[in-house]
Amino acid sequence: MFYSLSGNLIYKDDSIAVIECNGIAFELLIPLTTAKRLPEINKTVSLFTKMILREDEAYLIGFSSIEDKRLFDSLLTVSGIGPKQGLKILSEMSTQEIRNIIISEDENALSRIKGIGQKTASRIILELKDKIKKLQLGETTPSQNNLEKKKMEVLMALRVLGYTDFEAKRAIEETFKNTEEVQAKSVEDIIKLTLSKMVR
Fold first, then answer.
1. I need a labelling partner for 38 at 20 to 30 A (CA). Which of 16, 46, 65, 144 fits?
2. Does 71 share its domain with 134?
3. What is the pLDDT of residues 119-145, one digit of tens each?
């Protein structure tokens, strides 16, 4: 099966990428988080892939990082979670945000995703918590974990203040570009800094 695809990006939108490889154009479904990381049209791109085979259809899904693909594969092991739901989950939050939510057993945060009710959120957490913890141990450093924890706390605070996830995440990404500066600040200071960027 395909592990990854590299080639010329000839089309993209929020849910689809088309990559031309040696004269053959491959259409891939992608989560929104991957769509935001794609280069401009006619630039070279590489995506990790997952092939979905069904009786009546076959399609490829693309991911900008191997961590995204691994989380997607893990989600598919949960009873009742199919490829479309897995894509929806990865479109709403980053892989690290989803992992943090699962590890902290935050059912409410997970159930905010459209189509993921309380029961499904509970099942995802129950079935993946231990698996995600093992993955975390091998993939992240303490400083990375600290940054992601701060991001989550800032996001939660902005939600309480009434900002949409789109508005909040865009400002948070801008704030966290300077990782050294953010590492040295408290969560309260980071919230203030992020808010200052949102009112410009």
1. 144
2. yes
3. 999 999 999 998 887 766 555 455 565
